[in-house]
Amino acid sequence: MIEVTFYGHSAFLITIDGKKVLFDPFITPNDGAKSIDISKISPDYILVSHGHADHVADVEEIAKQSGAMLVSNFEIVSWFQKKGIENVHPMNHGGSKVFDFGKVKYVNAIHSSTLPDDSPGGNPGGFVVETKHGSFYYAGDTALTYDMKLIGEEFSIDFALLPIGDNFTMGIEDALKAADFVGTDRVIGMHYDTFPYILLDKEQAQRKALEAHKELILLEIGEKIILGNN
Ligand code: NI
Ligand code: MN
Predict the structure, then answer these.
(1) Rounded to whole angstroms, what are the CA distances from 146 to 15, 178, 179?
(2) Which residues lie near ion ligand 1 (Cβ < 5 Å)?
(3) Cα of 110 to ligand 2 centre, how many Å?
(4) 77 CA distance to ligand 2 centroid (A)?
(5) How far apart (Å, rounded) are the C-alpha atoms in residues 92 and 139?
(6) Is-contact 131 2, C-beta < 8 A?
(7) Measured between alpha carbons, how far is residue 150 from residues 157, 161, 163, 182 in Å?
(8) Cross-strand bridge partners of residue 78
(9) pLDDT tens across the length of the chain (230 residues)
(10) 186 C-alpha to center of ligand 2: Å?
(11) Which of 71, 112, 188, 222 has its CA 20 to 30 A from that of 21?
């Protein structure tokens, strides 16, 4: 069973066989996510796609209070090590690693990755996670790229978490194409509505998804759904 809980923006807790994997925690600075108490999340892993503040804001606090293992690119992991986070696992593009919840591959993203203090955050990425209950793609912040076709060739993706807010990342049309490239009909939207630059017309987005024969899942903050095979 794969349980997906939305914490706003691009922050998700994905629970796989009881192992809690937190993606891109940006919760306390998000006015829409005031109902989420980060001291109660207690993840086993924190996966960070790139260095921007709207993806790393709560990493330090959650990592320190939970002891979760931070998994990200080498530069981001090194930056957090200097802040006293010891349980880390650095990766880089094209590399895979088996963890106890599944196998993670750090894949390409077209974006930028400067850390909050202007330190270089390496190159931005996304994650493909293969588990015995299914596989999914967490794109991070990215443009549409033909590299996503490689994901479709290599993996059998059951669902994809894709940015749809436009302006800084893909908009809905490119995200629907990305879903095609990676080979899934099920998209969980992220990176929309948090800021004025990325307001989403949800009706229009759902209409476009319908036309493309894709399922577009837009979760409320705090909402949880169950996906994956048993
Ligand atoms: Ni970003
Ligand atoms: Mn972002």
Answers:
(1) 29, 9, 12
(2) 52, 141
(3) 12
(4) 18
(5) 15
(6) yes
(7) 12, 17, 19, 7
(8) none
(9) 899 999 999 999 999 999 999 999 999 999 999 999 999 999 999 999 999 999 999 999 999 999 999 999 999 999 999 999 999 999 999 999 999 999 999 999 999 999 999 999 999 999 999 999 999 999 999 999 999 999 999 999 999 999 999 999 999 999 999 999 999 999 999 999 999 999 999 999 999 999 999 999 999 999 999 997 76
(10) 21
(11) 112
Q: At what angle do helices 74-81 and 59-66 cross, to 10 degrees?
A: 70
For residue 14 the two structure tokens come to 């994905």
What are the residue boundaries of the structural domains of the chain, listed by start? 2-227
Residue 163 CA: which ligand is closest?
2
Q: For residue 141, how far is its CA from the centre of ligand 2 (angstroms)?
A: 6
Closest CA to 111 of 183, 185, 163, 178: 163
Angle at the Cα of 136 from the Cα atoms of 131 and 142, rounded to 5 degrees: 145
* Cα Dmax for the chain: 49
Partner residues linked to 135 by β-bridges: 130
Instruction: Report the CATH architecture of 2-227.
Output: 4-Layer Sandwich (3.60)
Q: Under a CB-based contact definition with an 8 Å cutoff, are residues 158 and 135 in contact?
A: yes
Closest by CA to 56, choosing from 126, 143, 140, 115, is 115
**Span from the CA of 142 to the centroid of ligand 2 (angstroms):** 9
For ligand 1, the distance from its centroid to the CA atom of residue 35, given in whole angstroms, is 24
